[in-house]
Design brief:
By secondary structure, this protein is an alpha/beta fold. Helix content is about 40%, strand content about 20%. It has nine helices and ten strands. Strands 3-2-1-4-5-10-9-6-7-8 form a ten-stranded mixed β-sheet, sandwiched between helices. Helix 1 packs across helix 2, helix 3 packs parallel to helix 4 and helix 8 runs parallel beside helix 9. The radius of gyration is 20 Å and the shape is elongated.
Length: about 290
């Protein structure tokens, strides 16, 4: 059985942007699409301003409309829908157990309010069983233009992210840019004297990044891979790279320049500032 691309919808613009991205991704990578709407059980069945429709009826219409959108964009795509009950993050985390990827909008309505840019979304991206892709409205990157960018530092999560990025680049027939950002600290007012030491450290790190890539080049020989070892905080470096990228892929936690908390300050910062969809990947990840 081929694991599906799962997309969560709630009727918001960001959710429909996520739906468009998910349709394109499932089509490119030959996967079925599963559209889910999570209804929190404590919400009233007959909300004010519901136009006479119950919450169940509105949810059914939402799913039917999303399915129709998906089928219009990709008539041959296998599409299923699911109306789920429970806490949003818990249900999406459960979905991630059998999904190839879970796709969400960056902001939502109702049960998905603040989904990714708040604590709920951090929990999902940090603890999902597979990649989580965050798509911002208006939709960008669904057409597949631009390179795939992967933040890399050699950590286990970064290795998993790199494999997912390779898979994405291969499906898009585009280049993969592997970015290592070193956040240097000024050690003294006369920091110029440290220049040769810092340059040597950067060279060593560039060599280490290059040493880790041949295995992936052998596995994905048709993907052009370029390396960028840069000085600067990873968040602005990756945010700048996202301006011309189709997708930015990050490990949920990292080492060195990407060191972070439970999800990762770098992931959190890039999700806030990226100009294209962002995928967050936890180790282990292997193509299903």
């Amino acid at each position: 059985m081929t694991n599906p691309v799962v997309v969560g919808i709630d009727g918001s613009d960001a959710a429909y942007a996520a739906l468009g991205w998910a349709v394109q991704d499932a089509t490119r990578r030959g996967r079925p699409l599963r559209i889910v709407h999570v209804r929190e059980p404590w919400r009233s069945e007959h909300p004010d301003g519901g136009g006479g429709l119950s919450l169940t009826e509105r949810s059914a219409l939402l799913l039917a409309g999303a399915e129709e959108r998906a089928r219009r964009r990709a008539p041959r795509l296998e599409v299923t829908t699911a109306h789920l009950f429970g806490a949003v993050v818990e249900r999406l985390r459960t979905e991630s157990e059998t999904a190839d990827t879970v796709v969400v909008g960056s902001r939502g309505l109702g049960g998905f309010a603040g989904l990714v840019l708040g604590s709920v979304g951090l929990a999902l991206a940090g603890h999902a069983h597979g990649p989580v892709v965050v798509v911002r409205a208006p939709e960008r990157g669904a057409g597949g233009g631009g390179e795939v960018v992967a933040g890399f530092d050699g950590s286990a999560d970064a290795e998993a992210a790199l494999e997912y990025a390779m898979d994405q680049a291969a499906a898009r027939d585009t280049r993969l840019r592997v970015v290592y950002a070193r956040h240097t600290v000024v050690l003294a007012p006369q920091a110029a004297g440290y220049g040769p030491l810092l340059a040597g450290a950067m060279a060593d790190e560039a060599a280490e990044v290059a040493r880790r890539l041949p295995m992936w080049r052998d596995k994905y020989p048709d993907v052009e891979v370029v390396e960028s070892v840069m000085t600067g905080h990873p968040v602005p470096v990756l945010a700048a790279a996202s301006r011309t990228a189709a997708l930015v892929v990050l490990g949920s936690r990292g080492l060195g320049g990407f060191a972070a908390s439970v999800l990762g300050s770098t992931c959190h910062g890039v999700i806030h500032r990226a100009h294209c969809p962002v995928a967050v990947v936890r180790a282990p990840w292997r193509r299903s």
